[in-house]
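If your schedule permits, I should be very grateful for your opinion on a structural question. I have a record of one protein: its chain in single-letter code and its fold written as discrete structure tokens. Would you kindly read the sequence against the tokens and tell me how you understand this chain to fold? Thank you for your consideration; the sequence and its tokens are set out here.


***
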Amino acid sequence: MATDPGARPSRRSRDDSDAEPGKGTTRTVRRALALLGEVAEHDGIALTEAAQATGLSLSTATRLLNTLAEEGFVQRDGDRAYHAGGRLHQIAVTAMTSTPLYRLATPHLEAMRDATGESAYLGVPGPGDTVLYARIADSLQPIRHANWLGRTVPVRGTAIGAALRDQCGSSGFVSTRYTVETGVTAIAATVHWPRGGVAAAISVVGPTYRITDDDLTDIGALIARHARDLTAQLAPGA
């Protein structure tokens, strides 16, 4: 059949071809998870914004978001923005309440908060090279570190990131000032799995003007002790 030599072959968006054998399903799952992550991180996100953030065409993003909505993972409001759905909330709550690490860490965070007056956090590995703040005992002081529950920070250059890399050294803790936020000091320690390996990190974060160098040493020793105790509690049968 004759063809027009000047005609250009049709081009599909780089995200629309799912035809490669053995790769289509994996690719689709990854795209759906990327969209789900964007929805979860925003208090309402438009279709165009979600598509742009994930590098997907509008048609692909629409198709995947519709499927996620049908399964209850996302929902749309009156402005047609996407929010986390009930199924996603259910999974998150179940994971947080059924995982021993989260449950056992809470009393330690509260004790650290009560002893220091500052906010205490549990950090776990997040997406990419980040730390996810998964639990918090919020400071009761009028001026306190903003609640970062659910937020991620870089592993590199942060106290909790260094602790998650098991870089606390002989002191058992690591501290940073002015790294993630101006005027904020963070002190963290590593929580290990009883049989080896890093499970998480716990930290205290507060205004730098309220944490002197002497306070930093005392708080660091306190956090290191709670990290050791939490590590021991994670042992089977503890």
Q: What stands out?
A: The two ends are 76 Å apart (CA to CA). DSSP finds seven helices and eight strands in the chain. The beta strands are 74-76, 82-84, 119-125, 130-137, 152-154, 174-177, 184-192, 198-207. The chain has two domains: 24-90, 99-233.
